[in-house]
Each structure stands twice: as structure tokens, then as C-alpha cells.
Specification:
By secondary structure, the chain is mainly beta. Helices cover about 0% and strands about 55% of the residues. It is built from no helices and 4 strands. A 4-stranded antiparallel β-sheet has the order 1-2-3-4, with no helix packed on it.
Length: about 100
């Protein structure tokens, strides 16, 4: 049997089926204040569902605290803090995390 390689990390072989849901997005601060800020602090909540092979199913729930910075006219993530609601992480890996 010939093995087919996809170029992804072995932990994602075969690839997972993933759904990311982001909600409750709030802008906390904009620097400098005005019509065209260059940096924005944002918080949001997320839910990630992952299913791989026949039996592996993971749910991750938590919040994100991001600082977005305008670079060459596009918004880029300058800093991200992720806080999971779970006290015990049962997922085998976090290769699917954003």
C-alpha cells in the first residue's frame, strides 16, 4: 500500500473537519482615537468543533483578547491571548487551533 502525503503535520493526517464560531466581538480601545485608528484592542468568545477519523471529537470554548494593528492598510494580529473555559484539555493536539 502506497502512502499519500499531504504536506501537513502528521497529527493532522488525515485532516480534521473543523468549524470555528466567533461571537460577542467588542472593541475595547482604539489608538489613537479618531476616524482611522492604527491599533485596536478587541475581545471575543469562540467555540471550535473538530472531528477527525471515526471517533475523535473535540470542543474548545473560551475567549480571545486581541490587539490588531494596521500595517500597510491591512489589519494584522499584533498580540493574542486565549483563555480556555475547560480546566482539563482532552484534545490530543492543538494543531487545529487558530
Amino acid at each position: 500500500m502506497k502512502q499519500i502525503l499531504t504536506g501537513v503535520h502528521w497529527a493532522e493526517e488525515p485532516p480534521s473537519r473543523i468549524c470555528h464560531m466567533v461571537s460577542n466581538v467588542q472593541i475595547l480601545d482604539a489608538t489613537p482615537a479618531g476616524p482611522a485608528p492604527t491599533e485596536v484592542a478587541v475581545k471575543s468568545r469562540f467555540l471550535i468543533y473538530r472531528n477527525r477519523v471515526e471517533t475523535e471529537t473535540d470542543f474548545l470554548v473560551g475567549k480571545r483578547e486581541d490587539v490588531l494593528r494596521r500595517v500597510d492598510g491591512a489589519w494584522r494580529i499584533a498580540r493574542r491571548k486565549i483563555v480556555l473555559d475547560q480546566s482539563v484539555l482532552l484534545a490530543k493536539n492543538l494543531t487545529f487551533f487558530f
